[in-house]
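User: I'm putting together a small comparison set for a docking exercise, and I want a reference complex before I start. The sequence is below, and the ligand is V47. Could you produce the 3D structure with the ligand included, as structure tokens?
Assistant: Of course. I'll restate your input first, then give the structure tokens for the complex.
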Amino acid sequence: MQVVFDDSRLNPIRGKVEAGERLSFEDGVTLYRTPDILALGYLANLVRERLHGSKTYFNVNRHINPTNVCVAACRLCAFGRKKDSPGAYTMALEEAFQTAASGYTESVTEFHIVGGLHPDLPFQYFLDLCSGLKQRFPQVHLKAFTMVEVAFLAKIAKLSIRDTLLKLKEAGVDSLPGGGAEIFTDRVRHIICDHKIDGAQWLDTAKLAHQVGLKSNATMLYGHIENDEDRVDHLMKLRAVQDETGGFQTFIPLAFHPANTVLSHLGTTTGFMDIKSIAVARLVLDNFPHIKAYWQMMTAKIAQIALRFGADDLDGTVIEEKIYHDAGATTPQGMRREELVRLIKEAGREPIERDTMYRPVTRTETSFTVAV
Ligand code: V47
């Protein structure tokens, strides 16, 4: 017997999802507007299970934020500092290597490296950082520098974006994280992150990264001043680039944390909006392999539920997260592998430890191997 949806506006969308047809901009807006979250979840879960069955991915990763000094002063951000402000820091290279090593175990398969746009650090610092990390931790994947950082480094280095990417790759960067995308529409971007590259430049940088052989992720920051159309526009633009390059691995909706930002008068996101952002993304981004419910941002409890609403990935152990914790996140700054496995199993899903490229990682007591 077919489940009847409370919101009959979803029936034509259901027909398309069941037939594997692409959804339109209007469909995306309808999905965001519906209060029928169970119908939305049903549809997103259909796609999720079509792609991955019950498999749910996570990794064992560590964040490294070499500096919080930033020339931009984005209203959305609680992490960046001006050079001489209290709390500003920049790691010497040795310090960054020690940070990478602290609490390091053989089980870490990824370093996630992002930071501020420092006005004085030379490009060579970042190249030495990456090559130094690769030398010390050759088996660890370096997922480093957002499109915004890459575009900034290109200016510092006086190189084209393509050549900047090639030099970073040569120094050991294996892929790029999805940050800095925020919301692409100019109206919103001017308010929340006026100093960053615009949406078109973010997308062009992603395309160039993919063209030189670097995969990347993509994010969307929601729950501030954007509306339904802005969010769907963001998804459509990502989908168009993915049609061209196939270089995106994972989409990650990021819940805005207003504390300690200029936008602190805004409320935090609701559970409904967190779940919707996952489900709508799964349905609209038909060419993205993975949708990540980043537990650090949406809490472990909501992320676990998201595994039945379209998400197939929980990110990872995330040792030492700083960006949302500066913005008042109350989630722990890391999670044990066993706890991630418990969350996934309790949702009736099959936990798969992956490396950054989604290859399964097999562990023994003392070592791990990655299937190739
Ligand atoms: O781009 C900044 C966001 C992003 C705040 O690629 C904020 O696997 C909420 O991109 N409240 C950086 N969000 C983090 C990021 C990320 C995280 C996890 C996994 C991956 C991946 C990428 O954090 C920024 C911005 O969108 N951010 N300030 C804030 N107050």
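The pocket of V47 is lined by residues 76-78, 177-180, 182, 217, 219, 221, 252, 254, 256-257, 261, 294, 315, 323-324, 327 (CB under 6 Å). The chain is about 40% helix and 15% strand.
User: Thanks, that's exactly what I needed.
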